[in-house]
Amino acid sequence: MPSHANAQGGKAFGLLKEQQRQKLEEINKEYMEDQKYRDEDDLPEKLEGFKNKYAEFDLNDQGEIDLMGLKRMMEKLGAPKTHLELKKMILEVTGGSSNTINYRDFVKMMLGKRSAVLKLVLIFEDKANSTPCKPDGPPPKRDIASLP
């Protein structure tokens, strides 16, 4: 019998998260092999980023972001939304086929040409986190005596 068969608590959660990441990685491989996305710049890096972001907000670990997961994501990104706005966002991403966002829909949205609200928020957050804000240093010191 495998040693993880009786895993409980944190160990079970870790195993579940690892299985989830493996499933997402399999989907990423499909995108890597898909002719439609071959010309996408930095595709492996983008897919890795999508996988990590998606896994962070899949709260029920079922491979889907539900309304509460999306709510948490938007709050964490500093753009809280009402339940109605969240439902519209899910509808926009899934095309009305589901009440949750699966990973394939998420990746299609992020790589697609359409500007879904969720995509715009995630891109903005990504740029905000990756743009280094390097101050040029303190303002020049002024000698009081030199002031007119």
TrEMBL record:
Gene Ontology biological process terms from the UniProt entry: actin filament bundle assembly; ruffle assembly
MF annotations from Gene Ontology: actin filament binding; calcium ion binding
Main location per the UniProt record: membrane
Keywords: Acetylation, Calcium, Cell membrane, Cell projection, Cytoplasm, Cytoskeleton, Membrane, Metal-binding, Phosphoprotein, Repeat
Pfam families: AIF-1
Biased composition (Basic and acidic residues): 139-148
Domain EF-hand: 45-80
SUPFAM superfamilies the record matches: EF-hand (SSF47473)
Keyword Membrane part of the UniProt annotation: yes
Region spans: Disordered: 129-148
Subcellular location: Cell projection, Ruffle membrane; Cytoplasm, Cytoskeleton
PROSITE patterns: EF_HAND_2
Name assigned to this protein: Allograft inflammatory factor 1-like
